From TrEMBL:
Region Disordered, residue ranges: 350-376
Coiled-coil features, chain-numbered ranges: none
NCBIfam families assigned: portal_HK97
Organism annotation: Gluconobacter albidus
UniProt-listed InterPro entries: Phage/GTA_portal, Portal_HK97
Name this polypeptide is given: Phage portal protein
Extent of Basic and acidic residues compositional bias: 357-376
Length: 376
């Protein structure tokens, strides 16, 4: 949560303020990060995620409650408004859209429901997740996993039958079978040599190498990562990448994957938790600086250039880098610009250290030229 200031632009809302506190600790059970993790899981897999807004008497949010997707149903009333029927035990002793309602199940008006949805088809009021749109990919991944589990649970012993050179009775066949199982059965003894004259083992199954279990599972991992738009380096899977540095990879991940979800959240929160008169003062915004952050030397060089050219104040830079923030008396809220870029004529001129002596009209350098000057 950020607020607009005259000197430093958008800055985080103080934790001590009511709105700053609830966006970090939305209720007595969860933090906002926990709520977002659960919402993203619901959104990806099922296409919908829900957060109920509890408001105080003034209409401002006082609490946010995450509700599982399978505990919410939505319908459209005669006026075209969406009404959400939601169930959660945390609704007890809370006032929701209808102040007369009590109990665990409430009818929530669309203005009091953060509804995140994806894969909306033909203007539907709910979205669809990957379980609906790409269930085959997950089915193949589960099949490969189950096949691998069965193969290795069998001690890597391939199915087959024992062929004897001469016909044998049932008792002899049982004895041959038991001896073979004693030498080959179990994980610890698989692959041990068995000396049994007059018999031949005929394999009817495939070995783990022939099954290509590793290749199959890696391929399914890549396929699922492609659907989720997660780069393979996040999953420790070797891959060729067009980007050269980790910073560039993170920036690509932000633009190609994260922005879709964060924009959904930002738009819903900004539209429903603020009054229209407050939209220019506050905003709900995700800051990706900590994800795609360059090394310290590059950051300081960039901040120095921005500060020297009058883009930011020293107080803003100190706050972003967790440095001690200089006071206003020490210039913490003042902008500076190079003197060769300042206005050198007119009422707004910046003194360059030139002065006249004894009526001489030729200016001389009285002091060394200043490199930067504070501009109020």
């Amino acid at each position: 949560m950020e607020q607009m200031t005259e000197t430093n632009g958008w800055v985080p809302v103080p934790l001590v303020s009511p709105i700053g506190n609830i966006v970090r600790y939305p209720n007595s059970r969860h933090t906002m990060k926990e709520i977002f993790r659960m919402c993203i899981d619901d959104l990806i897999m099922n296409g919908n995620a829900y957060i109920v807004i509890i408001r105080d008497d003034s209409g401002m949010p006082s609490e946010f409650i995450y509700v599982s997707y399978n505990s919410v149903s939505v319908y459209e009333n005669e006026e075209g408004d969406l009404i959400y029927n939601a169930t959660h035990k945390m609704f007890k002793n809370k006032t929701t859209s209808d102040s007369k309602e009590t109990g665990f199940t409430r009818n929530i008006h669309f203005e009091d429901m953060i509804h995140l949805k994806k894969n909306v088809i033909n203007g539907e009021i709910t979205g669809r997740g990957l379980i609906y749109t790409a269930s085959e990919v997950f089915g193949l991944a589960l099949a490969a996993q189950e096949t691998a589990a069965r193969t290795f649970n069998n001690g890597a012993a391939m199915p087959g039958f024992i062929k004897t050179d001469e016909p044998v009775d049932d008792e002899t066949a049982t004895l041959i079978k038991s001896r073979f199982m004693e030498s080959q059965g179990g994980v610890n003894r698989s692959g041990a040599p068995a000396v049994m004259s007059g018999t031949t083992f005929v394999k009817t199954g495939m070995s783990p190498a022939e099954l290509q279990l590793e290749n199959a599972r890696n391929q399914q991992t890549i396929e699922i990562a492609r659907m989720l738009r997660v780069p393979l380096y996040k999953l420790a899977v070797p891959s060729s990448s067009e980007t050269a540095t980790l910073e560039e990879q993170e920036i690509s991940y932000i633009h190609n994957t994260l922005n879709f979800y964060t924009t959904l959240i930002e738009e819903e929160f900004n539209r429903k938790i603020f009054l229209r008169s407050d939209m220019e003062k506050y905003r709900f915004h995700f800051d990706f600086t900590s994800i795609a952050i360059p090394d310290f030397q590059k950051r300081i060089s960039a901040w120095a250039m921005a500060h020297t050219n009058g883009f930011v104040t020293s107080g803003y830079v100190a706050a972003r880098e967790n440095f001690p923030i200089p006071s206003d008396d020490n210039g913490g809220n003042q902008y500076v610009v190079p003197v060769n870029q300042a206005v050198i004529s007119g009422d707004d001129s910046v003194p360059l250290g030139l002065s006249n002596h004894d009526g001489d009209k030729t200016p001389v350098h009285d002091t060394p030229m200043k490199q930067a000057e504070e501009v109020q």
